[in-house]
Design brief:
Number of helices: 11
CATH architecture of the largest domain: Sandwich
Number of strands: 9
Radius of gyration: 20 Å
Number of domains: 2
Length: 279
């Protein structure tokens, strides 16, 4: 067996090449994953893998992927030589509720839609080249991967039968709002009220959508702005913008407020972060 792992910011990419084998994750082992909550997506490169969980069996063939539920006992069976990529990332990066993640877990995703046909080759190449990317590009690539996986998950949820508590509809709406936020990070007037107006919703409804995810609208906006700032600060020295310019560009009205928020989120000041990267 050969296992290689690379970190791309919050995304961990592991490629496993192995012969015939059977791996069993017990209730004790999965309990440890529950404490360290994450989402794992398997992408089959060659050979095949059979995922067994409860009474369900999922055959993962070359060119297909599956969202997996690692919080419950499962088995992975490789009947022959195989090569599998595993993408592990924080659940909040997908913007999916736990109920939604469980609904799509174990369902093979083939490149049979335009979205899947875009996402699967991107992830395959990302895994193959994971060790070659420059440090300042890795968090950005991780964000791109998470956004594409979130889009793919939303598409799959939309094709499911309607859920009794409306999870799928809420998830799709929340993802559309997050896309709107991403497109307007540089707008200092981006607020829950302007977001609600743009989507013909009440402010209360927008707040409720984010509360279901355990966060707030303002908290999400601040998080995405800080991530955008962090990426900008990681540019090579010759292209690096001034710290104050970065703060103002992404909606922070004062540098002191930006610096405090950055330190609270990442444990260091923007200047220290830039110095750590050597830019």
């Amino acid at each position: 067996m050969r296992v290689t792992t690379h970190r791309l910011g919050p995304l961990r990419v592991t490629t496993t090449e192995a012969g015939p084998q059977r791996v069993h994750a017990s209730a004790y082992a999965t309990a440890r994953f529950t404490a360290d909550d994450h989402v794992t997506v398997l992408l089959q490169d060659s050979g095949c893998v059979i995922i067994g969980q409860s009474d369900r069996r999922t055959l993962l063939q070359p060119g297909s992927l599956a969202f997996t539920d690692t919080t419950r006992p499962y088995t992975l069976t490789c009947p022959d030589l195989s090569r599998t990529h595993a993408f592990r990332l924080p659940p909040q990066s997908l913007g999916l509720r736990e109920a939604d993640r469980r609904r799509i877990a174990g369902t093979p995703v083939q490149p049979d839609t335009e979205t899947a046909a875009l996402v699967i080759p991107f992830l395959s190449r990302l895994a193959d080249q994971a060790g070659t990317y420059a440090p300042h590009l890795r968090p950005l690539l991780a964000r791109n991967a998470a956004d594409l996986l979130a889009t793919l998950a939303a598409e799959r949820l939309a094709h499911d039968a309607p859920h009794p508590d409306g999870d799928a509809a809420g998830t799709l709406l929340r993802l559309r709002i997050k896309g709107f936020i991403e497109d307007h990070l540089t707008d200092p007037d981006l607020t829950p009220r302007t977001i609600a107006a743009a989507h013909h919703l009440s402010v209360r409804h927008v707040h409720r959508l984010f509360q279901q995810e355990g966060t707030t609208v303002s908290g999400w906006i601040r998080h995405r702005r800080l991530e955008a700032c962090r990426r900008a600060l990681g540019r090579p020295a010759r292209d690096a913008p001034a710290l104050t310019a970065v703060a103002h560009r992404f909606g922070f009205t004062s540098y002191s407020h930006f610096s405090r928020a950055f330190r609270a989120a990442y444990g260091m000041s923007p200047r220290e972060w830039r110095g750590r990267l050597g830019t």
